[in-house]
């Protein structure tokens, strides 16, 4: 590398790292080579005198090096778009100049910079600041460490987030809340509860309202109603139940876990409500298919002078979709601009699904073609699902082919497309799709369901016969089908033509 000297410790390492990350003139292979050289240089630096500092420094270097050996992460760093000079990189350049001019980099600056990268999921910029924290000697600081945990957690690097947390020489409530929030983002309620219990065992630490918000989020995502109720009891005991963001989190948790009455009780008991509160309750009604209740609540919200936002309309359109209210859904979409809210891709997706479920497939396709934003895989997937339900093969083929432009490796879409081709006798296209699946080694991802029994969440995958209770499960299913038949209800099992065994 042109900028490396014979004595690596005499060259500002922060500049080495910045150049190897941010130079937009580098080609991917050269970027990898220069970054590897920079890592080797950093390992030759004379460490701090403290043994703890030495171990911290070495551990964080190994963390960064291991991260860069991950193919999925490496693609982020070598992609041309991420090698362009960005706002984050300009900030890092300014940071380097500040330190070179003797102005110094303090803990507060690094913590804020890392937090900013985390809020934008800017992994490239965050790793640069991580390197800067190492060279500036602040890597053992509890606030810098907490910001690093949040950064890696929000970038879905749970292993790296936990490693930073596990090796912190000092932890405070911010550190514990950050690691719980990281696992809550991935709905790992088991790990969240384990960390929470471990934290409660420390006499010097007490959970704060943000800790409980993360815990409720994990319970909400995994459907763990029992654990959510337990957290609610502790929230009342700690006196956090009147905090607005806690009450909003409780509404979301109870509604997502199926306890709509409990969510409504909290909503009606609140003496102060913000737009998030109204949005949470409208979304709760939408999730449970209570379209008329959602619309009524929206009208009450407007009467009280609360201005709706994009999230409000998303919940409202979702409720119309589940309730099959085509005219109302179209009217609310048109009224968004009148209230100063620009429709986004998610709003159009709801209307496409609403039209598709109602069998108005041509209208749904025309909306996709004419909407002012570019469609994505979700919208085409929604149209594909509706086409399959209503038996429109040609629109289904168009939707499947369009979706594959966005997700070429989606095995489910490829299988559905092959079945659609088979239904019209296009066997050469069937063979082409089957070959694509085989060449790419793609297999269908089974669906997953879960149920909570005695405060324990049990997960089930489709076609998974490893459960030792499978015989009992099938017996109960048979009894349910017989009971439905006795009530005059007809059970319907939808299955596609199995062309894969032919």
UniProtKB/TrEMBL annotation:
Keywords: Repeat
PROSITE patterns referenced in this protein's UniProt entry, alphabetically: PPR
InterPro entries: E_motif, PPR_At4g14850-like_plant, PPR_rpt, TPR-like_helical_dom_sf
PPR repeats (start-end): 141-175, 274-308, 309-343
Entry-linked Pfam families: E_motif, PPR, PPR_2
Protein name, UniProt field: Pentatricopeptide repeat-containing protein
Organism: Stylosanthes scabra
